[in-house]
Amino acid sequence: MIVEKMKGFGTTRSCIRELFEYGLKQAAIVGKENVFDFSLGNPSVPTPEGVANVIRDLLEMDTLTLHGYTPAAGAANTRMAIAGDLSRRSGDDIRPENIFVTCGAAPGITATMNALAEEGDEIMLLAPYFPEYPAYASLTGAKLVIVPADTEHFQLKIDEVEKRITPHTQIIIVNSPNNPSGVIYSVETLTALAEVMIRKSQEYGHPIYIISDEPYRELVYDGEDTPYLPAIYPNTVICYSYSKSLSMPGERIGYVCVPDCCENSKDLFAAIAGAARAIGHVCAPSLLQQVIARCTDLRPDLSAYDLNRTTLYNELTAIGYHCIKPKGAFYMLVEAPDGNSLAFSERAKAHNVLIVPTDDFGCPGFVRISTCVSHDMLVRSIPLFRTIWEEYQQ
Ligand code: PLP
Known about the structure:
This protein has 394 residues and is of the alpha/beta class. The chain has helices at 4-11, 15-30, 49-58, 63-66, 76-90, 105-116, 133-137, 158-164, 187-204, 265-278, 286-295, 303-319, 341-349, 375-393; strands at residues 36-37, 99-102, 122-126, 143-147, 169-175, 209-213, 236-241, 254-257, 323-324, 331-335, 353-354, 356-357, 366-370. The protein has a seven-stranded mixed β-sheet with strand order 2-8-7-6-5-3-4, with helices on both faces. The chain has a four-stranded antiparallel β-sheet with strand order 9-10-13-12. It has a two-stranded parallel ribbon with strand order 1-11. The protein is globular. The site of pyridoxal-5'-phosphate has 13 residues, from helix 6.
């Protein structure tokens, strides 16, 4: 018997993918230069040069060692390098034993969800949220509880979180810098969230964990920083990915960190290892683990993303659009002029401008514009955004 739920995930495309594929078809008709594709979150700055150099050197290594299985949690030197890097940037004392190396953030989040929640439990998503979370959570059998967005500042509506925490709540997913808003949750916001979660954990007699999904941690602008969440809320599991920070999403490498401050951290680590095994994890790609062991201190060149971010924000607000100024990641939210995000996306599509309605992010009324695109394309799209705006004024 084919499992309908899984068939559903396999046959329904996300609206992001749908737009992207539409763009490819349209490019064949009207020419690539006439399609303004802002749909995907595929990094547009090159992978740091140091990565290519390390890969070249690694190819001289003994191939059986380089390409062989590693321990499920990762090669010892990789876990050591990641732990050292995370300790330096957080001031926390992270040990290799806290690190489980994964094939990117997606399987790390999936394994952590499966380690912490099962049927009868609840997992809380804070809108706007990454639309893949429901698929990641699907094997747990847990119910998803959605907290509506703060559509003014795109911080968190703490009172709405509190109202929705029940004795069944096991996990709250926090994603900052946020996809799709580009907003970084402030220390004040995270402290308020922590206070509620500590109170509710005590009331219900079990820890409620945060999964901190942070693939955009280093992609921050204007001197901003991404707060280290375990220092604010100890029961935090970090799911990290090198997809965005080192511009290599196709290589599939990241990690889960269960800090010692997490309640039952050793058991939780073991459950995450078990859950990873249950979804078919053997080990992260060995070559990439050796790359990471040597590249944890490389940082992305953010200047191109920053230029796109400021250009788009300044140009669109000058036209009249209401935009949420991003402080991180490479996305910007723009309010639909008449509040209808689907219609806004369709209207833009008629001009070959591909922007993603935020309905699937649990926050209708906006579109997401990915700013990880060529600057030239972004600049050439501005007159079209003006035309679209004028159409709304008629
Ligand atoms: N979480 C968020 C918020 C993302 O935006 C993405 C990818 O775009 C992921 C998780 C998945 O990351 P990865 O490619 O490392 O699996």
